[in-house]
Design a protein that fits this description.
Rossmann fold; 5 strands
């Protein structure tokens, strides 16, 4: 078992440029200290510099990092594309092992919007449109109905408000760390 009955685990998934990182950062800003961000891009691309593939080391590192933070009393937001085929088993085990409330969200953005948003990112020159089209997985939901789908029409502030309320983070005090 991991975490406590008081810790919250939030999993934010969706395609590239769906707003996951922006939502995660806004949740942390809104909550304050005591909320750990476990970003797939950071651990996979920056820390390990590896490709996204089945059985890759980042899958275990994401799991280990989330578990460590939960055990240390942090609320945790795990965010990334986290495709169901590669990450689904790890996320299911983490969900099952977490003692506190766990909430999953899938940010559903159509390919056309993904392409438009990606074009404005600093890494747009590193990843071309063909790659984005190849990676795009429409509604790549985890089994069991464990995710709330949030559509492209939900503005950042609305999405953050919803998650803060759904998870109970809005009622919890920030930690003095």
């Amino acid at each position: 078992m991991v975490g406590t009955e008081d810790t919250r685990l939030v999993v934010l998934r969706g395609n590239s440029a769906s707003g996951k990182s922006s939502v995660a950062a806004a949740l942390r800003d809104r909550f304050g200290r005591g909320l750990a961000l476990v970003g797939q891009d950071n651990l996979r691309r920056v820390v390990l510099r590896e490709r996204d593939r089945p059985g890759a080391a980042n899958i275990g590192l994401i799991d280990l990092t989330a578990r460590y933070a939960l055990d240390a009393g942090y609320h945790v937001v795990v965010e990334g594309i986290l495709c169901a085929e590669h990450y689904g088993d790890m996320l299911a085990r983490l969900r099952a092992d977490h003692r506190g409330a766990t909430h999953g969200y899938y940010l559903d953005v159509p390919l056309s919007e993904t392409l438009a948003r990606h074009a404005t990112k600093p890494i747009a020159h590193e990843v071309d449109e063909t790659s984005l089209r190849d990676w795009y997985l429409p509604l790549d939901l985890l089994p069991g109905g464990v995710e709330t789908v949030i559509g492209v029409g939900s503005r950042l502030e609305e999405t953050v408000d919803r998650i803060m309320l759904d998870t109970g983070l809005a009622q919890l005090p920030a930690l003095d760390r």
